[in-house]
Amino acid sequence: MTTRRTPPQGFPTEGPAPELVAAGFEYECAGAAMLHEGLNLADMAHVMHLADAGIVPRAAAVALLRALLDADATGPADFGYDPADGEPYNSRERVFVEQVGDLAGWLHAGRPRREATRLAFRIYLRRHVARLAVAAAELATTLADRANEHRATLFADQTYLQQAQPSTVGHYLLSFAYPVLRDGERLIEVVRWLNASPAGAGCVNGNRLTDDRNSLADRLGFASVIENTRDAMWQVDGLIQLVSTVASLACNQTSLAEDLEIWASSEFDYVDLAESLTRASVLMPQKRNPYSLSIIRGTTGIIIGQLTGLLAVQKSPSARSDSLIFAYGEVPSVVEHGLRITHLTRAVVATLTVNERRFSEELANGFSQATDVAEQVMTECGLDYRSAYRVVGAAVRELSRAGRSLQSLTVTDLDAAALRVLDRPINMPEAALALAVDPAEIVATRTALGGAAGGPVDVMVAQVRHLAEELEREASARIAHFDEVAEMLRTRASEWAHDGQGH
């Protein structure tokens, strides 16, 4: 019979290997700047909560709060985070031990390091995600403003980079505003998720030192408490939603950026970027490169990669540190990337010059009215749409071969095409054909909800502005609340630190 070996148990007696410091603790400490404020606030709330419960002696609470207030007034770069001491939480312990000795040990009462860092992570993210929602609202407003400016600027809208149907630049720009607003609303949903407190959850099964998790949540400005204590420590679904939403927001912007990069080329010459958003070639004097658009497109690729990485580390058994260790660095980076390109996209849209002459030329020389001509043939000549489609298609082919545009189409051309396709003329009325080949008349018929005609565009501009205003108001109010709560907590901690009673 073999005896099962018992693995080594208990606290390590040796310091971390340099390889572990380089591969692990250095990586974690790189996120200390992001966690620093939240850790300070979480520690203050924890100390005061335990002192109120009579667990931490008053003198110890006063000493700890003074150290925490000093830490809060010290920037993370100067605080003394050192990977040789471990990740940020353990590194902080070394600093506090130097300041208050063994009294620093009270910070561990009823709370693992992960609870403190989970709190700090949410405190940081809820504010910065709300900032990204504000940026999204501002971008949507700018898109609506430019759409209103170009509500009657005609152009041949495209699919597959080919002319599709006559539309307006205003209608085109609005098609990017609505996804921005939807992603903004999703960001607010994430803020609500982030604004639930894991405080007081302990390790996995709860905390025997407190039966009041709500008061901890209130001190830190959380709107609710995550009920299941194990879930409180390990939930990541909201982070997946957050990074997915930022990726969606970026993908919408990169679609616009890719269109504009093509349109800004010499071959198209549809738009011009503001010079301040371009970069000159150091070799070729004639080149002014659309650098801002490359940044939007490239950053979107980085965000997509970070989303993939986040999903990959979540594919593990439950309650594993790696599911969140890497998220501490990657998720704030995603939010920052999203914030930067959203501001950049707004600057691009706000300063974009639209070359209306070039749009008009291409519209006049192209065949984007073909669908309306076919529909007009159907309604005026009594043909089913497939037959009308074939007749117009034959006419377009002949016009293209002859170097003519669709605006030069005559009823004689249509009859000739009909004879080839249907073995009979169709006798299209000239007045009806004239309406069907006029881009302005075509756009004017798009009066249904969401169409490109002036009326629906005006409605959409007003709607986008209103929704953007509501989004910005809610996100800004949340930011103000988070700031107010943080200052109230600092004030309360300062009162404790001065008189030991908190009043």
Write a concise synopsis of the structure shown.
This protein has 503 residues and is mainly alpha-helical. Helix content is 66%, strand content 5%. The longest helix has 46 residues, at 454-499.
Describe the structure.
This protein is mostly helical. The protein folds into 3 domains: 18-109, Orthogonal Bundle (Fumarase C, Chain B, domain 1), CATH 1.10.275.10; 115-355, Fumarase C, Chain A, domain 2 (Up-down Bundle), CATH 1.20.200; 370-437, Ribonucleotide Reductase Protein R1, domain 1 (Orthogonal Bundle). It contains 19 helices and 8 strands. The chain has helices spanning 18-29, 32-52, 58-73, 76-79, 88-100, 113-149, 169-194, 213-219, 229-234, 237-263, 291-314, 322-351, 356-365, 370-381, 385-401, 411-422, 430-436, 439-444, 454-499, and strands spanning 154-159, 162-168, 196-197, 224-225, 271-272, 279-280, 288-289, 353-354.
